[in-house]
Amino acid sequence: MDMQDARRRARGRAASTLANRSLERGIEILRAFRPGADVLGNGELAERTGLARSTVSRLTQSLVETGFLQYDATLRAYRLGAPVLSLAHAMHAGSVVLQVAAPMMRELAQAEHINVGLAMADRDEMVYLESIRYSRKVSLRTVVTGQRVPMALTSLGRAWLAVAPAEERQALMDTFARRSPSGWPALEREILDAMAQVARQGWCAASWQPEVVALSTPLRLAHHPVHILNVSVSTKAPVAEAIAELAPHLMRLAEKIREAFERDDQATQRFSPS
């Protein structure tokens, strides 16, 4: 069973069927475009997606006709079309979680001169829905909204794994193990330790980039998928010292967001027609 099927089963949905295979393959084409891979030809798309070139050619033609890809005749390659950005904007603007959380995140970032982020899982990566950067020390690492970071290495990803459905988590762990068999035992210990931290204290820490310490906590809100809230700082201070400073801020922010959602839910229920 692959990771996509594990996610479907974890959410109570059936495994992939022929009826939706063309749509899934079209989405795989769009997923192949990343920063640094903004122009791709059919051969590169076939290599990145594992699809046959004839299938890729058919799908790219349909995606060009619908505007989701643009064809560059000089390069004989494709780039993402404007509708992709429009969808991203609609998702970001329409996120109820961001509408509640973002002002509180910005307030904390400005007051404490730290970085505050909110992310969700996408396959074996985490995607930032919002990234507010106010760290007191300039870092060479820039994180922006929409950026992806590896799930296995980051506090964001490890906090998500701690609360993920067991079947989906195991499929992901198997993926990590296959990707780096020699380094997997050490990485597995780090992930399990982080999961234990979340169970014990509500958050986990990681310092996978030089002089950057990050803490993350799962944000479970009624009627919404799990989001992961994190705070980070660029510092030369000892990791333990940075963690002691960041943890209270993170957990207070998470509690404030949960309380705001509970108030909204209660107000909705109070004024909903019976």
TrEMBL record:
Pfam families linked to this entry: HTH_IclR, IclR_C
SMART domains recorded: HTH_ICLR
Membrane-crossing segments per the record: none
Top-rank taxon, per record: Bacteria
Segments forming domain HTH iclR-type: 20-82
Chain ranges of the IclR-ED domain: 76-263
Keywords on record: DNA-binding, Transcription, Transcription regulation
Statement: the UniProt record of this protein carries the keyword Isomerase: no
Leader sequence segment: none
PANTHER family, sorted: HELIX-TURN-HELIX TRANSCRIPTIONAL REGULATOR, ICLR FAMILY, TRANSCRIPTIONAL REGULATORY PROTEIN
Protein's UniProt name: IclR family transcriptional regulator
Organism: Cupriavidus campinensis
